[in-house]
Amino acid sequence: MSRSWAVWRDHAGRLSQLKLATLAVLVLPGAVLLVRMVAHDLGARPITELTHVTGDWTVRFLLASLAVTPLRAVWDWGRVLLLRRMLGVGAAVYAVLHVLLYVVDQKFNLWVVGSEIVLRFYLTIGFVAFVAMMILAVTSTDGWQKRLGARWKRLHRLVFPLTLLALFHYVLQSKSDVTSAIFAVGVFVWLGLWRLVPRRWQGRPWLLVVLMLLAPVVTALVEGLWYGLATGVRASRVLWANLTFDLDIGLRPSGNVLVLAGLVLAVAGIRRLWKRRGRLVPAVRRTA
Questions:
Q1: In a domain, 71, yes or no
Q2: In this structure, what DSSP letter does residue 42 have?
């Protein structure tokens, strides 16, 4: 296999179908946006819509890259580690598109772009997160890892504060409808809580149950606090809305976090049962 294909190999040197599938997932949102653009299906302000959607996918792929280590532990799935760099670089690519589209929306007037970044707080923190993401993307290669040595890990721990800044930017720019942004915050809460517990507990099923119950509660509190501070809506009303279900509205962000955490728990249980069955079957055959 040629050197140009090395990035698509697994640790055994084989072409990784998992990596190719992940590449397809990374490309798909951009392809959908391209089709929508050709079909004139982006609304009255297509550039603004493109800017927002590429920003959304930046956050989603950034969170997905942070989820790699937890999923490695709770699903006992070592191959998922192959995807961390791809997801991180994919998030960076969508971040570049996000910023470039904003520049296009400002008619390439870099003075206006710069002044907006300085004067608008949500743009300032978004730009800081963008610069940090570019640094991590550039230094994500094997060459930079060897060059920086032990400093490489310390540098790449910046992914946690930059994700926090990106989420703050996401919530602030969402203005009145923060549903998707608060859901992203809830996912980050789940990932953060998992990393805070001692390492010896991180693969335990009971921890997944605790996180499944705790992360939605924290998400609801964040949502209530946000609406209380930003819009004047009483936090208690928002918290009550999280305890009810409206068929027309659907689940609140906390409900979606609960569903996602439940899926993680379910997959972890299925994988454990499957592996146990795989160990038992050969044992039965040997005793037969």
A1: no
A2: S
